[in-house]
Design goal:
about 290 residues; alpha/beta; eight-stranded mixed sheet; 2 domains; about 45% helix; N-(1-d-carboxylethyl)-l-norvaline Dehydrogenase, domain 2
């Protein structure tokens, strides 16, 4: 794996909220980025999301106009996986949290990338060891867990699998710092550090709403004002997506037991299509 300073080209697989956010921070760090997706509409939404985010950065004085325009020029969108990965120094996967989908994708990716390229998953909970099964070179594979919204959140959780090489971990941390992130290193365990702790708080907050302890607004205010959290657990659940949190909860319930059993309220809201900000309705109403 090349030094972080030598990384010239990245491929980001999946043009959703996390994918286009990762592509943006790479481009802002001077890295040429290919944003890949199988869906043309998703690619166009991803590119529009990058443009909108960069424009906000300019408006708020966090980036100069010429810097934003240069970053946008570094982003290319493609539906061809081979072309996306062929010259990449780093490949970051950000597709839905489905083990077999990710494993199938990485098996295909490995046929297209250079032997020294770093392979990383943005998974928030799935086992790095299981994701690496079937890879010819699992030592170059690890988790790079970014947080939403990627351009604003400073944390990067580096997840080390049992076969991840020490040099790759060092390179990943250096790359994270180049992207403006503060890296932490955790071992491959269910939910890692961030998702496990964050979900425990979020699920308990949902149970409190379910039991009528307090309103969503007041529960969030308790954590924001009483514990200095920048955002309450229920508003954060809306931002992450109730369906995403349900998927993580189901996985941790299977691996860690009853403490992560999803509340019935969460299941019901997902079933009703109340997914949070992306659907316009969750524990809060969201409008543009």
């Amino acid at each position: 794996m090349a030094d972080a300073a030598d990384v010239e080209r990245a491929a980001v697989l999946g043009a959703g909220t996390m994918g286009h956010g990762i592509a943006q921070v790479c481009a802002q760090a001077g890295i040429d980025v290919v944003l890949y997706d199988v869906d043309d509409a998703a690619l166009q939404r991803g590119l529009a999301g990058i443009k909108k985010s960069l424009e906000k950065a300019v408006e708020k004085g966090k980036a100069r106009r010429d810097e934003a325009e240069a970053a946008l020029r570094r982003v290319t969108v493609l539906k061809d996986l081979d072309a996306a990965c062929r010259r990449a120094d780093v490949v970051v996967e950000a597709v839905p949290e489905k083990l077999e989908l990710k494993r199938k994708l990485f098996a295909e990716v490995e046929r297209h990338v250079a032997p020294e390229a770093m392979l990383a998953s943005n998974t928030s909970s799935l086992s790095i060891e299981r994701l690496a099964e079937g890879l010819a070179r699992p030592e170059r594979f690890l988790g790079l867990h970014f947080f939403n919204p990627v351009p604003l959140m400073p944390l990067l959780e580096i997840v080390v699998g049992p076969r991840t090489g020490a040099g790759v971990v060092v390179a990943a941390a250096a790359l994270g710092r180049r992207l403006g992130k503060e890296p932490i290193v955790v071992q491959d365990a269910p939910g890692f550090a961030s998702s496990r702790l964050g979900l425990a708080l979020g699920l308990e907050a949902i149970r409190m709403v379910e039991e009528g302890v307090a309103s969503a607004t007041d529960i969030d205010k308790a954590m924001e004002l009483g514990y200095r959290h920048p955002m309450g657990p229920l508003k954060l659940t809306d931002l992450v997506g109730l369906d995403v949190r349900l998927g993580i909860a189901e996985y941790l319930h299977q691996t860690l037991g009853e403490r992560f059993r999803p509340p019935e309220l969460l299941r019901r809201m997902v079933g009703e299509g109340k997914l949070g900000k992306k659907s316009g309705q969750g524990f809060y109403e969201w409008t543009e």
